[in-house]
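Provenance and format

Records in this collection were gathered into a single text stream. Each protein contributes a sequence line and a token line. The two records reproduced below are adjacent in the stream.
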Amino acid sequence: MQNEKLKIKISIADRVYPLTVFPQQEEGLRKAAKEIERAIKQFEQSYAVRDKQDVLAMCALQFASKSEQKSINNNNQVSEAEEKLNALNNLLQEFLAK
């Protein structure tokens, strides 16, 4: 049943976090945990950072900036689409006015 929650354990930075989630959330959470682990390893190797707090802060910054950039990009695309639609609408109105 989709409404029943699952008890899962997610490991991040050598710590295990027990979570209670809906079945449809499990895959996303597991993929997110794997992505965080990948980013942790990358920061540790690239910058020789050993303090987990610093590594996790950099991971949080990286993921938040990606999210913000997607939002900015989407807003820009919406604005461009609105401009094009307005221009098309103006052309149609001019044509129909003739």
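Adjacent record:
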Amino acid sequence: MRELLLARPIRDYAVHGFGRLACIDLDSGHLIGFCGLKFSEELGAIDIGYRFVPECWGKGYATESARAVIDDHVMRHGATRIVAVVDPANAGSINVLHKLGLEFERPLTADEGAGALHLYSGRFGDA
């Protein structure tokens, strides 16, 4: 696990200055998921990602944390294009992306490492 963290999320902070963040429930102190940005080499863009434990789905955590991450990134780094990769059957996640201001761009191709996934994107800041 340590090697995985060093190779991916910690490397993202060292190379790009941003990465994924743990999301902790303030009442219980339990880890409930993650949210954050990473630079996708395959897409040549900054990708917003989030994942929460099932009992936290539908409670607004993804929208709240992703909005905070995007706002912080724009404040620190300026205007930017942010993308998200989503399973087209995941209506909940697509709803979150729409709330954040991302819109459907195109289906991803197999050579982009996807297959049946969709790319959403949005511009943030003074773009």
